[in-house]
Amino acid sequence: SRSLARRMDGLALSDIVQIKQRAAQLAGEGRRIVDLSIGEPDFDTPHHIRDAAASAMASGATHYTATAGTPALRAAIARKLARDNRRTAAPGEIIVGVGAKQIIANALLATVEAGDEVIIPAPFWSNYVDMVRFAGGTPVIVPCAMANGFLMTPDQLEAAVTPRTRWLMLNSPSNPTGACYTLDRLRALAHILERHPHVRVMEDAIYERLIYPGHTYHSILDASTALSDRTLWISGVSKAFAMTGWRIGYGVGPKPLIDAMAVVSAQTTSHPCSIAQAAAVAALDGCQDVIDQFRSAFERRRAIVCDGLSALPGIDLIAPAGAFYLFAGVSELLATMTGRGIENDRGLADYFLESAGVALVPGSSFGAPGHVRLSFAAADDALRHAVDRITAAVRALA
Ligand code: PLP
Questions:
Q1: Which residues pair with 122 in a beta bridge?
Q2: Residue having the nearest C-alpha atom to atom 8 of ligand 1
């Protein structure tokens, strides 16, 4: 007899969790380990945000709130959308969730059933694939080449759409590649989508505020207002304000979809923590300079890893346009390693962890074998040390 439901088949904790466990084990044995597997800012949440949470707690914001989020937070999100995204949204078109992650999961649970397809460009945030399966749907993975900047082309989109397509997932700037769609590229995708009215767009813009000079964030709605009644736009405070632990994300979309997602929340978590919601209001309404401070630190760190690793033979890099990940091509490096027991990106990530003490994540975990992902959300010194150790480890095999 089964002990678990069939919907659990094939679902597991991510590879990253296993890598972190091994890194912690090695550190416990006294090794110096630089953990670049993680996807979270190493900064503390700014003081004014923590203060707002403390006063919310002291003044009694300790009760259930509206399932879709407090009116105060939804109003703050509406102001943020007007300010940063030149977009108007009514409170009924906004829902707050337990991180952006819950928004994505609830949208899929509310709309996807057996036989439904969801187009996921690769490299992808691996949770997309698992969440689609959990919802009973079929992920349709579209590999996007480094030569195209890891971005999906209009022809690829056209070829992937079928009558069963429910969603296109778009993640810009991307985890794991840092790639960001330009307005022109979004126009070209929108042009295809306009001809397929049954396809909705889920835009995961969690890294929208972490964009480097020379690049600009755009939503697909900047390219085509015709898609507004079938686009769910998702962001949150985790990455922009160093608030990963507070678990506040939000979705903006057509009211019938938002209402259905609120029903899923009502039957599972209810709303996110009342105190965290008050903190998120302070983040969105407060001084936005903190984002610039974080971004300039990440920009400096991006240079450390890009400059350091681009000197290595056999490694292909594109400097990321946004987010805090470097997705390096290692196929050429692997080709020089045949006969040394390192067969693929997983073997290479193991080698870097065991022999160089640097934890990073194989590209296979993101649907793109032949690459590794390195997070540069770590201290400058740690990154310099990691670059030195990786360089030495690569030279040792040459
Ligand atoms: N979307 C992407 C692409 C992410 O990388 C992450 C976090 O790693 C999330 C969503 C989840 O963010 P949150 O902490 O708001 O749930």
A1: 143
A2: 39
Q: What is the mean pLDDT of the chain?
A: 96
Q: Which atom of ligand 1 is nearest to the CA of 39?
A: 8
Tell which atom from ligand 1 comes closest to the C-alpha of 40: 8
Q: How far is the CA of 101 from the centre of ligand 1 (A)?
A: 6
Q: For 240, which DSSP code?
A: T
Q: Determine the Cα–Cα distance for residues 288 and 57; give it in Å rounded to an integer.
A: 23
**Element holding 139 (H helix, E strand):** strand 138-143
Q: Find out whether the peptide bond into 213 is cis, omega within 30 degrees of 0.
A: no
Nearest atom in ligand 1 to the alpha carbon of residue 174 is: 3
- What is the distance in A from the centroid of ligand 1 to the CA of 100? 6
**Per-residue pLDDT at 144 exceeds 80:** yes
Distance CA 352, CA 337 (A): 13
State which CATH number among 3.90.1150.10, 3.40.50.80, 3.40.190.10, 3.40.1170.60 fits the domain covering 6-44+290-397.
3.90.1150.10
What value does the mean pLDDT take over residues 361-369? Answer: 97
Q: Which atom of ligand 1 is nearest to the CA of 125?
A: 3
pLDDT of res. 178: 98
Q: Where are the alpha helices (DSSP H) in the chain?
A: 15-28, 47-58, 71-85, 99-111, 127-134, 154-160, 183-194, 220-223, 255-266, 274-285, 289-310, 331-335, 345-351, 380-397
Structure tokens at 363: 């590209």
Among 45, 238, 265, residue to substitute to test ligand 1 (most atoms within 8 Å of Cβ): 238
CA 180, chain centre distance (Å): 12
Question: Measured in angstroms, how far is the CA atom of residue 16 from the centroid of ligand 1?
Answer: 14
pLDDT in tens, 257-276: 999 999 999 999 999 999 99
**CATH code, 47-285:** 3.40.640.10
> If you measure from the C-alpha of residue 375 to the centroid of ligand 1, how many angstroms do you get, rounded to a whole number?
14
CB-defined site of ligand 1, < 6 Å: 39, 99-101, 125, 171, 175, 204, 206, 236, 238, 244, 249
Q: Report pLDDT digits (tens) over 277-325.
A: 999 999 999 999 999 999 999 999 999 999 999 989 999 999 999 999 9
